[in-house]
Amino acid sequence: MKPKSHIVNLPVYQPGKPIEDVKRELGLDEVIKLASNENPYGASPKVKEAILAELENISIYPDGGAVELTADLAKTLGVNTNQIIFGCGSDEIIALLARAFFVPGDETIMADQTFSVYKSNADIEGAVSIEVPLVHGTHDLDAMLAKVNERTKMIWVCNPNNPTGTILSEQALTAFLDKVPANVLVVLDEAYCEYVTDPSYPNSIPYLEKYSNVVILRTFSKIYGLASLRIGYGIGQPDVIKLINQVREPFNTTRVAQAAAKAALKDQEYIASCRRANAAGILQLQGEFDRLGLEYFPAHGNFIMVDVRKPAGEIFDALLRKGIIIRAGHSKYPTHIRVTVGSEEQNKAFIHALDQVLEEQKAQV
């Protein structure tokens, strides 16, 4: 068998290391995973009730159009039902956007460094990725605009940005969108938007009325705590959503995921409590990093990227041996690690392990 020549050397996405693997490989009884930006408090109790009830229908195909969930979400967001598409996580919407719009030779613009799935899907479709360096961990919107030409098909803006956690203000993003040509699609990836407390952060939904070329991506994997159920969504103009739907596989979200998402939407009090706990966790970790004299990017999601002043891979391995899984391997930030904001107890355990690792590193010098 001979595959497409341009995919032979594509890197395979590496998710956060599973807890079960670490326990087995290192013989550990207790492991804390702070690598994949999961909600440490899990999902709402109402979600669990909905899942149990839905198990009665496990032999029945899901609603391929997620009609009830779409109606609930449209009401929550204040948009029309034909402006929403659901996917197997927002990752699938990224893949569907690439499938629907890219032909070989198209160009797509993104930050460097940002969520790697934008580039990998562009590569699969034969599009050329134009990567624009971050400035102080934040998208350089002026430099991204300067890269737009007649071959540009799509621009990706991750806000808050993964992995740095920085945000773009409403003022900056609006000025940017005003200048992007109407034939260039702008994808606003807002996977972590529900965590943001900064008042300068944009409410992007009104952009959909003003800009016909905007698509917004969000997910139930993060603050809603449904990561294992893989359900996310895109919001855009009806004609754009229709095109994405035309390349979507049928039954791409499950009955259980749809039921869980419907229940999660109805418990906004729980979401607010997770937002408050996350904000407290950010302050907790920032205070400890200040004590250790470590610099970090402003955190607006549920993770912090911190400069440990040592090769990140070494710190990752050392923390792993102590039962703490974090994220390393960011090529543009070789001495930075990304750590999910956990519960107060998880954060304490991480800092205790990091203290030990940094002391051990000093002793080796």
TrEMBL record:
SUPFAM superfamilies: PLP-dependent transferases (SSF53383)
Cofactors (names): pyridoxal 5'-phosphate
Keywords: Amino-acid biosynthesis, Aminotransferase, Histidine biosynthesis, Pyridoxal phosphate, Transferase
Xref: Pfam families: Aminotran_1_2 (PF00155)
Keyword DNA-binding attributed: no
InterPro entries: Aminotransferase_I/II_large, HisP_aminotrans, HistidinolP_aminotransfase, PyrdxlP-dep_Trfase, PyrdxlP-dep_Trfase_major, PyrdxlP-dep_Trfase_small
Chain positions with N6-(pyridoxal phosphate)lysine modification: K222
Gene3D superfamilies: Aspartate Aminotransferase, domain 1 (3.90.1150.10), Type I PLP-dependent aspartate aminotransferase-like (Major domain) (3.40.640.10)
GO molecular function: histidinol-phosphate transaminase activity; pyridoxal phosphate binding
Record domain Aminotransferase class I/classII large: where: 30-354
Statement: the UniProt record of this protein carries the keyword Cell division: no
Gene Ontology annotations of biological process type: L-histidine biosynthetic process
Pathway participation: Amino-acid biosynthesis; L-histidine biosynthesis; L-histidine from 5-phospho-alpha-D-ribose 1-diphosphate: step 7/9
Domain of life: Bacteria
Subunit comment: Homodimer.
Identification of the protein by name: Histidinol-phosphate aminotransferase
Native source organism of the sequence: Paenibacillus dendrobii
Gene name for this UniProt entry: hisC
